[in-house]
Specification:
86% helix; mainly alpha; elongated; 182 residues; 7 helices
């Protein structure tokens, strides 16, 4: 199977499982399953890629850097596609659930900052907030939440995390394959 087909298959399976989970489990569990599936698919792609590379490349022509490069290429393709699919899922397919989650978080922030005793304790624990009113602190927290929860920010953070995990998995997989099985 070509690396592009493998990447598309894994990404399609991820999206299919996420859509099925949308109707069967709560959002927070769905997010955790999505993260674990991405890590699993990155590892699967890395293992299958290094296996194909080792089988098709003569041992005398293969170096560790070549192994890592050939393993990382499809993993990075998957990372880009998966990050885009995370954005599509969160802001197109499950837009209503995402909006409900955002509203619940805003309400939680409001409750947290509107409780006078709780906010006084927060100020004592965080001296930088001694001169900040509860309303200003709440507005700042909501603003930070909205910046991070923007689709572009979500896709960017997802891409960075998936690329980092992918490069780490690619390197470790290539080294393990070369040391133990090569």
């Amino acid at each position: 199977m070509s690396e592009n087909k493998l990447v598309l298959l894994c990404a399609g399976l991820w999206l299919l499982v996420k859509v099925v989970l949308k109707y069967t489990v709560p959002l927070d569990q769905n997010v955790m399953v999505g993260v674990l599936m991405n890590l699993f698919f990155i590892l699967l792609i890395a293992v299958l890629s290094i296996r194909k590379h080792v089988i098709t490349t003569p041992k005398s022509e293969s170096h560790l850097l070549d192994d890592i490069r050939s393993t990382a290429r499809p993993v990075l393709k998957y990372a880009v596609l998966a990050a885009l699919l995370i954005g599509v899922y969160n802001y197109v397919i499950a837009a209503e659930e995402t909006a409900q989650h955002e509203q619940a978080f805003r309400e939680q922030l409001h409750e947290q900052y509107s409780n006078v005793e709780s906010y006084k304790e927060f100020q004592l624990a965080n001296p930088a907030f001694m001169d900040v009113s509860a309303e200003e602190a709440e507005a700042s927290a909501v603003e930070s939440f909205e910046k991070f929860n923007h689709p572009f920010a979500q896709i960017t953070v997802s891409l960075m995390a998936l690329v980092l995990a992918g490069l780490l998995y690619a390197g470790v997989t290539a080294v393990i394959w070369r040391k133990l099985l090569g």
